[in-house]
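Supplementary Methods. Inverse-folding protocol.

Structures were first reduced to a discrete structure-token string of length 388. This string, shown here, constituted the complete conditioning input.
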């Protein structure tokens, strides 16, 4: 018969088993915690970035300005018939592209009508001279008679009027001779300068009326190039160009270059003046460069219409340094390398900027070094290694 004591051991077991499991787990946890490996934290030193450096040396620098334009004649004129007549002779130079020298006869008109007119005017002049001499002698004779009271005042006045008419006729005849002489000279068309024919419109036997267009000529001894400049670039030139538009004591030197005749050719020129207005469309100011030595050292003539590159010699500015464009950051700063080879940001003043170089006027001192390597990521104090 069950007295109820047989179930107690089972209940005790059910309580002891979980407690033993918990105790065993706690012992294992303590052992594991006390015996786990210690993790050591190491801080790596940053690896210096390799950069190229530039030593700063502030010095006076000669500025220059680059531009481009087309060669044009400084002097271009239209040859026009000043008298009418038939063309009887044309120079072989009077063709498009033909060269001529100053004083060359380019064209002749039939002079016979003008020779006749000159002869007639000379004959009329001879008559006028004779009549003037007679009138002068007659006036003198009447004056003498009037002084002796042998001639009346009306006779004297009449003689003086005839003398005045004779003098006027003589002046008119003299002017007619001069006019006839000039007209005859104008049947010969001579070159006003050394030049070239741009275009011509005349044939042998053609009758030209007064004012008819014969040819267009231009001077090859003096050519010019019209160059566009930004208004800020005037600061690179002698101040006289900005103040008066004209060159000062000595015009600025200009070198023109172009690929021509199978080679790169160059010509020397001078910057004469600036044009008065700034273009409202392009915002550029144009300057005029003149070439007086149109034949270069290679014996190549500078042709009109050639597109040329121009480099203008500007003024000299003190305390400038030229650095590669890669050294300049977007915020107009550079990276200065200190004695410990660490980088530091430095704001600078840009005087002139080109595609490859930068002229810096303020912010750097002679003896300093800057990084000229393009770096994607830079922090203040970053270590670098300078390479050659």
């Amino acid at each position: 018969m069950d007295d109820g004591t047989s179930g107690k051991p089972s209940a005790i077991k059910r309580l002891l088993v979980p407690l033993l499991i918990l105790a065993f787990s706690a012992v294992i946890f303590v052992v594991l915690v006390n015996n786990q490996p210690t993790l050591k934290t190491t801080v790596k030193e940053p690896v210096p970035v390799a950069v190229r450096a530039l030593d700063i040396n502030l010095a006076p620098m000669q500025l220059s300005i680059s531009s481009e334009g087309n060669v044009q004649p400084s002097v271009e004129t239209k040859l026009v018939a000043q008298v009418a007549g038939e063309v009887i002779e044309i120079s072989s130079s009077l063709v498009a592209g033909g060269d001529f020298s100053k004083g060359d006869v380019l064209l002749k008109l039939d002079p016979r009508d003008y020779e006749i007119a000159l002869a007639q005017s000379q004959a009329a002049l001879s008559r006028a001279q004779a009549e003037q001499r007679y009138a002068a002698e007659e006036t003198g004779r009447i004056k003498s008679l009037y002084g002796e009271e042998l001639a009346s005042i009306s006779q004297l006045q009449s003689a003086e009027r005839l003398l005045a008419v004779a003098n006027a006729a003589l002046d008119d005849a003299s002017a007619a001779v001069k006019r006839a002489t000039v007209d005859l000279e104008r049947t010969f068309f001579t070159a006003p300068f050394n030049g070239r024919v741009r275009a011509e419109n005349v044939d042998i036997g053609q009758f030209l009326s007064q004012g008819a267009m014969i040819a267009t000529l231009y001077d090859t001894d003096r050519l010019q190039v019209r160059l566009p400049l930004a208004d800020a670039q005037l600061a690179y030139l002698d101040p006289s160009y900005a103040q008066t538009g004209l060159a000062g004591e000595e015009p600025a030197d200009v070198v023109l270059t172009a690929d021509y005749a199978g080679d790169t050719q160059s010509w020397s020129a001078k910057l004469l003046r600036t044009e008065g207005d700034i273009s409202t469309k392009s915002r550029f100011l144009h300057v005029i460069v003149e070439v007086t030595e149109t034949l270069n050292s290679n014996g190549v003539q500078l042709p009109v219409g050639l597109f040329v590159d121009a480099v203008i010699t500007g003024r000299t500015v003190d305390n400038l340094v030229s650095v590669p464009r890669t050294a300049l950051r977007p915020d107009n700063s550079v990276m200065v390398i200190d004695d410990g080879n660490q980088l530091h940001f430095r704001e600078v003043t840009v005087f002139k900027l080109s595609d490859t170089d930068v002229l810096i006027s303020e912010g750097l001192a002679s003896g300093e070094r800057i990084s000229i390597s393009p770096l994607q990521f830079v922090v203040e104090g970053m270590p670098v290694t300078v390479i050659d």
